[in-house]
Amino acid sequence: MAKGEQVFTNCTTGGPVFVYVKDDKITRIEPLQYSPDDAGRWTIEARGKKFSPGNTALLAPYILSERARTYCKERLLYPLKRVDFDTKNRNPQNRGKSGYERISWDKALDIICEETIRVQTNYGPGAILTTPSSHHNWGNINYRHSALLRFAGILNCTYIDHNPDSWEGWHWGAMHTFGFAWRLGLAGQYDLLEDGLKNTEMIVFWSSDPDGEPLIYNGQETTPWRFWLKELGVKMVFIDPHYNFTAVNHSDKWLAPRPGTDAALAAAIAYVWITENTYDKEYIKNKAYGFEKWQNYVLGKEDGTPKTPEWAETESGIPAREIKALAREWAKKKTMLACGGLGGAACRAAYATEWARMMVYLVAMQGMGKPGRGLWTTNQGAPYNADFFFPGYAEGGIGCDTANSAAGYQWITRGVTLHTVSSMVNNAIGQHIPRLLLPEAIMSPPIEWRGKGFCGNSTEMQFKKYKYPEDGFSTGKMFWRYGGAYIGTMTNTNRWVKMYQTPSLDFVVNQSVYMEGEAKFADIILPACSNFERWDIGEWSNCSGYIPHSSSGTNRRTIVLMKPCIKPLGESMADYDIFATVAKRLGFYEKFTDGGKTLYDWCQQYFKCTDLPKYISWEEFEKKGYFVVPLPKDYKSTPALRWFAEGRRKDTPDWGPSGGGIMGLPDGTGLATQTGKIEFESTSLIRFDPNDPERPPTAKYIPSWEGHHTTELYSKYPIQIITPHPRYSFHTMYDGKESWMNEVPEHRVKAADGHYYWVLRINPKDAEKRGIKEGDIVKAFNDRGAVLLSAQVTNRVPPGIAHAWESCAIYEPIGEPGESPDRGGCINLLTSHRFISKNACGMAPGSCLIEIEKWRS
C-alpha cells in the first residue's frame, strides 16, 4: 500500500472486495484475495483430473467500477424538495418535470413527519405505501428485508409485494409439477458440480446464460466450472434466440427458437422420445404421476394434433431434423438441463408456466437425479458446509417480518436474542398490493388478483384471491419509495409515470443513493449513503430463505464485516440511520433501534446469533474483516435428487417443505407434491381449476398473446424483442453512474450527440430493410411507448428478433414524461403488464412486439 493508505473489507452484490483509502478518499477497489490459511478450499477429482478454485474472489465485472459509482455526479448528497411542492399546493402533475432545491434535514423531516401523521390520522393504517427496488446495496442490516421492513412494520404501512421477476415460470408453473414451494419452484443444486464433472456428457442450456446473467450475486465464480467441463469433453448445446455470452465461449450447437415457442419445441422432443421408446420408462412408472395425460397430449390423442418435430418447426422455426437430432443425442447421453438459472427470457414470457413445467417433464423422462442427469444451472452446486449457520439477506435481518421475508426459515428462532419479535407487527394489518399492479391500485382502485408475491409457504398460496383496498382500509395516500427505479425493471412502465402524476397520490418520498429513474418523481428526496460508507455484515451471494444455500454458487462461503471505508458523502446517511431519525421524530425510536442500537451494535449482535463465535472471536473477525466457512473434514457429497431417483429419504440439506412437514408421505422418499411424485398432471391445479385454459393440469403449448399468431398486431409490429437481465449491471444498480461501464459497447454506446445510448441488437436482414447501420440511433416503439437506442447489427439474433437488456437506470424522455420517446434506454416502457396467465400474477416482458425505425430528430 502507498504511504498513509488503509485497506478495508466490504461486500457488494457481486462479491467481496478490499477497499483502499487515503485521506478519506477511495483510491482503488480490488477483489478479495484469500490468504493461505483461509479454510474452505476444495478439490474435485474427475475423469483423471483435479479441479480446485483459485485464491481470488471472481467478482461480477461491474463491481470493478465501484469507485467511479461512489463519486459519480448522480449521487444524492443532500435532502431535496421539489421546487413547486408544498403541503398546501402539491402540483402532482409536475412530478417528473420540476426541478429540486436543497433543504436541511430538519426541514425534510418536518414535512415527512407532518405528512405521516396527517395521513395516519385522516385515513388510518395502510394509507402509507412502501416498497424497495428489486435489489439494493449489500448488507443484512441495511437491506430491504431488514431495516425497511422493521420500520414499515412498526408504522403499519401497506407493503407492495415483490414478484419473483427473474423466475416467474418456475414459481407459477414448475412448483405445481415437483413441489419446492419453499424454493419458489426451483430444485436444489447440491453437489451438482462434482456430479457434472464426474458423470455428465452433455449440457443443454435452455434460455440460460450463466456467464451473461450472474443473477444470484455470485459474480463470475462459476465461470471456471464451464471451462473445466469443456476440458473434460462435455458437449454444450444452447437454445436461445440470442447467441448469448456463455454460448460464445462454449457452444457446440446453437438453436434459436422464435420467442414464446419453447414449449412447442419441448413437446416435440418428448414426441421423439415417446415414439422411439428412448425415455426412462421404469423411472416414469415409479416416480411420475399422470404421464399418460402428457403422452396423450404429445401424441395428439387429446386434441388431434401430434406434437411432431415438423409441427414444432412451423411454430418455433427450428428445422425438424435438428429437433430430432437433439432429442436422440439427449437420450443417448447423460445430460444435464440448464434452464434459466433464476431467469432467462423463456421464463418471463406469456405462459412461461408451461415451458417451466415441460422442463421438469423432459428431465424426468431421462431419469432426473441419476448420475449426470438432472436440472443443473451450472451456477450453484460447489462443495458446501450447510451446517454452518449464517442467515441470508432474505431471512429478514433485523426486520423479523415473517410475512414479507423468509425470517421463519431459521432466523426467527436464532434471532430471538435480538429482542424484537414481540415488538413487531409483521405487517399483519391485512392489506398489500402486487407491485405489477401498483399504478392501477393508485389510479383506478379497486383491483383483484390471486397469489401473494413470493408464495414460499405452500403451492396453494397462489390460489388465494386478494383485493385492494381491503374492507375497511383506505387507498394509498403516501408512498415511501426506497432504492432504485422500477421504470427500467417492471412492465409497461409509462404507467408509473402517470401514477406519480395523479392527484390521488398526496405525497411521495424517495430514499435513494442516486438521482435516477423514479427519484425525479418524488416530492422529497432523502440521500442514502453507499455500502462503503456504513457498517454492515453479510455473506457473499447468500440470499437463502427462499433460495436455500444460494452461496453454493461461490467457491468459498465468505462472510464479510462491511466496514465504513469513508465518511458518508455530503449529508447522506445509512438507510438504517434515516429510518431511526424519522422514528425519533414519530416517537418509536426505542422500538425501532431496540433501545438505541447503532449499526455497529447490530453487527455485533448479528455476529453473536450465528455460528461465527464457534470459530472466531468478534475481535478477530473485526480485525480481519472476513471469515471463510470451513468444509467438514469428513465432507460427503449428496447430489441433488439422487435420493429421489434411488428411492431413499432426502439426504441433502434442503430445509423444506415449510412448516416442518416431511417430503413424500408417509416414508419421506418422495417430493412435496400431493402424490409425492413428479406430477405430469398437477393435483394442485386439478383442485384449483381443472378447466383453466391458461394453466391446465397438464402443461401445453399455448401460443403467446403477443406473438406471431396475433396476426393483426404482428403485421403492425413484426419484431419480437427479448429483454433478459443485463450482464454489465445488476438490475439498475450499476448503470448510468458515469463509470467506465458506459464504455463497454455491449452496455452503452456513445453517439455523436455525446449521449450514451442503451444497445438494441438487430439482425442484418432486418436492419437492411429499415436502412439501419451499426451505431445508428433507432426508435423502438409500439402502442405502449417509444425508446431511443443504439443499433448493433449482428447475426447473434435471427431475423424477426431483437434483443436489449432490461433494467437501465436512466429515464430521460425527450419531451413530456410518459408521452414522448425515452433516450435513457427503458425498454420496459414497451413491454406488456399483462400477467403471465390470468391466475398467476407474474410478469411476462418476454412477450413483446415492436417496430424499429431509424431515428431522425
Amount of helix: 10-25%
Described by strand count, sense and barrel closure, the largest sheet is: 8 strands, mixed
Roughly what is the average pLDDT, rounded to an integer?
93
Strand content: 15-25%
**Beginning-to-end CA distance, first to last residue:** 51 Å
Structural class: alpha/beta
By DSSP, the count of extended strands is 32
Radius of gyration, in angstroms, nearest whole number: 26 Å
Runs with pLDDT <50, length 5+? Answer: 416-428
Give the overall shape, derived from the CA principal axes: globular
Task: Describe the protein.
The strands form 8 sheets. Strands 7-6-21-20-19-8-9-16 form an 8-stranded mixed β-sheet, covered by helices on one side. Strands 26-31-28-30-29-32 form a 6-stranded mixed β-barrel. It has a 5-stranded parallel β-sheet with strand order 12-11-10-14-15, covered by helices on one side. The longest helix is centred in the first third of the chain and has 19 residues, at 105-123. It starts with 5 loop residues before the first strand and ends with a strand. The relative contact order is 0.16. The chain has 857 residues and is α/β, with parallel strands linked by helices.
